[in-house]
Amino acid sequence: MIEVKNVSKTYKMGKEIVTALDNVNVRINDGEFVAIVGPSGSGKSTLMHLVGGLDTPTSGSIYVDGKDISKLKDKYMSIYRNETIGFVFQAFNLENTQTALENVMMPLIFAGVGGRERKEKAKNALEMVGLGDKIRHRPTEMSGGQRQRVSIARALVNEPKIIFADEPTGNLDSKNGELIMNLLTDLNEKGYTIIMVTHNMDEAKNSKRIIKIKDGQVQEVSKDEI
């Protein structure tokens, strides 16, 4: 379970203090599929980065399974990100000089998994997203939808509890976007907690719950409201 308690995040831009999140409280239960929506600059990506351990709040606490991750030192934050979280980004963030298999193995290298086991786990993750026949292809030899599936396989390979998807279909056409949304829905049905940041209101309706952020504050909305 994720609990965001009284969290604020401010940035200093020159002489100005910008508030990205303002006393936010959010609770996300295990196994949920949550869409975070809102206009550009609303704070939705900031919230994802904080819960994902990529940034720390200015004030407040973030609990994941009862542990306040906002208080973790760098070493333990890295372990948290590697073992608990899987990230899927709009820009894929793949190494074009490496094969799909090598890209997916990267988190396992950081986790200290041995060579043979590492390769087997990466192959299994690629098969899970329907790319078992593409393990030796490089990203430049793949479509956008295939590259995003490699990104999802990489997010899955350490068997995390939570998958963060930041605009996962933003660089895809509608057909490939639909395939990625179906894949995320399937993963959620298998028990993964999915937290998706999106501008696409139609895709947000595929989630089980929608959180809207505006001017750094959150509100629950029904699917009929968007």
Explain briefly what this protein structure is.
This is ABC-type antimicrobial peptide transport system, ATPase component. The chain is an alpha/beta fold and 226 residues long. It contains seven helices and ten strands.
General description of the model:
The protein has 226 residues and is of the alpha/beta class. 34% of the residues lie in helices and 29% in strands. The protein has seven helices and ten strands. The strands form two sheets. The chain has a six-stranded mixed β-sheet with strand order 6-7-8-3-9-10, sandwiched between helices. Strand 1 and strand 2 form a beta hairpin. Helix 3 crosses helix 4 and helix 3 packs parallel to helix 5.
Keywords:
226 residues; alpha/beta; Rossmann fold; four-stranded antiparallel beta sheet; 10 strands; 34% helix; globular; ABC_transporter-like_ATP-bd; AAA+_ATPase; transmembrane transporter activity; ATP hydrolysis activity; ATP-binding
Question: Topology of this protein?
Answer:
Blueprint lengths: L1 E12 L2 E13 L4 E5 L6 H8 L7 E6 L2 E2 L5 H11 E5 L10 H11 L4 H14 L15 H13 L5 E5 L7 H16 L3 E6 L2 H4 L4 E6 L2 E5 L5
Helix pairs in contact: 3-4, 3-5, 4-5, 5-6
